[in-house]
Design brief:
This protein is of the alpha+beta class. Helix content is 25%, strand content 36%. A hairpin with a 2-residue loop joins strand 2 (17-20) and strand 3 (23-26). Helix 2 (28-44) packs across helix 3 (76-83). The chain is globular and about 35 Å long. The two termini are 13 Å apart.
């Protein structure tokens, strides 16, 4: 099993993407978050190339603020896009995806657990 810790607050889908003329694009905040995630992942991933097998991925979003109105599914898209081509070849390899949130923690962090499956 692979485990990664990203010491950032998860960026919501609404903050990460923008619409213009019926076209969706990554916002400035989204680009910065993706770049930062990739830097943290590169430091922690020791394999020579991305994983090629099917995967089970669990993501734990930890939030410092004690707000219950944080949607657990909002942080998946950009985070998974950040791992694509770096940790795994393509997100179609993910066969099981789960997420949890914890609020009122000491710091904002994202914990990622990836397991290769048959």
């Amino acid at each position: 099993m692979y485990r990664f810790i990203i010491p950032l607050k998860a960026l919501s889908w609404n903050s990460a993407y923008r619409m213009s003329q019926k076209k969706m694009f990554l916002s400035r905040k989204g680009k910065k978050f993706k770049e930062d995630c990739q830097e943290f992942l590169k430091e922690q991933f020791t394999e020579e190339r991305p994983l090629g097998n099917n995967l089970k991925v669990k993501i734990l979003f930890q939030y410092k603020e004690n707000r219950k109105k944080i949607d657990v599914d909002n942080g998946f898209k950009l985070l998974i896009d950040s791992m694509k081509g770096l940790i795994f070849e393509d997100d179609c390899q993910i066969y099981k995806l789960s997420g949890e949130k914890e609020i009122g923690m000491l710091r904002d962090e994202i914990h990622i657990f990836i397991e290769e499956i048959e």
